[in-house]
Amino acid sequence: MPSTEYRDALNDALERMDDLGYERGHGVDLASHGPMGAEALAALGHEDEVARWVGRYRKALDHHAPPAARFPLDPADPSSWRPALGAFDRAGDWEALFARELADAPWRDVLVRWWPRLLPGLFAGLTHGLIRTAHAVRGLHAAGADATGLQLTELARGLAYWAARYAELPGAPSLNGTLTLPSAVAALPRDPQDGGLTPGAVRHRLDALTDHPGYHESLTRLAPEHAPRLLGDMTLQFTDVYLGHPEVAPVPLVHGVTAPAAARLVLPHLPHELYEPTLARLWQVHTALLLAFTTDRRGEGSDAWRDELPDLPSLADQAARAADHGDEHVIKFTEACLREYTLRPDPRYRAAAHAAQRRIPRLDAGGGVGAVSRRAV
What we know:
With 377 residues, the protein is mainly alpha-helical. 54% of the residues lie in helices and 1% in strands.
């Protein structure tokens, strides 16, 4: 159970970042990672570094202004809220809606009510709607009866960002196949295309998913599996993918790990009937990430990752290095990899975290320059 220090550091960070908008950057739409990074840093056991990190993070890139609420959304009327899904100019209205919902009902009830409504748009902000929601859920669960208004507001904002950047991928994923996750990834045809891995080429490949040979077939190839086991297969497989593609910009593929690791934080608070649809949507996101950001299998499934092992520090040192590095993706990715490693001690988790710390620039060296614009993906 997280400590009092964790809860105090988290609430202090949320107070320090209460004025930040949902996105940041100049001419791009980069998801705000402040609350997520602060919570992950505290979860790594570096609560005493959180306040200093928040200061570093705020200086790295200017955030857009918080969105203002304009027109109320009625949660009981789908004709009111459905048209606002994916409308970022309604982010303030979404936040107001979830704030009202959380004021009137326990947070778990709100989460269960909205999870199936938002799930088809899981790709929202490159899965940052899900991830921000999950970090908020972990904090609320840790606080128990002592949960604060700041923490409830953060959950409202996580759900609101998911709704406002809601993005459905084509096709209907389901777990009706016969393949294990490694086999399903190996069976997915990669298609080298003109444009390489430029943002424009990535955007084009995402827009053309429905016409990609093998995309729709892939969505139904995966066999059903016990949810915790399949989540572990997903995080492990995508550490392998991350390690096997040093040619790809160092941030996008981390979400193949952090998204299912985030779902693991939330699933205990959901009814079992939502497990399989969640896993199916995660596999759909994984398929899209592979087709958008990789054009071949490169080093996947090889022993190339073992090159990272000789220099691995201890678990505690690896967490400390993430805290010192400061990039929000490095912090979140390291926390997810080390958490998954405790459940399944495969060295690829630690090797992937080590690789990310080397590949992604430090926060002080570029303000999260490895981040990917939502417009680009």
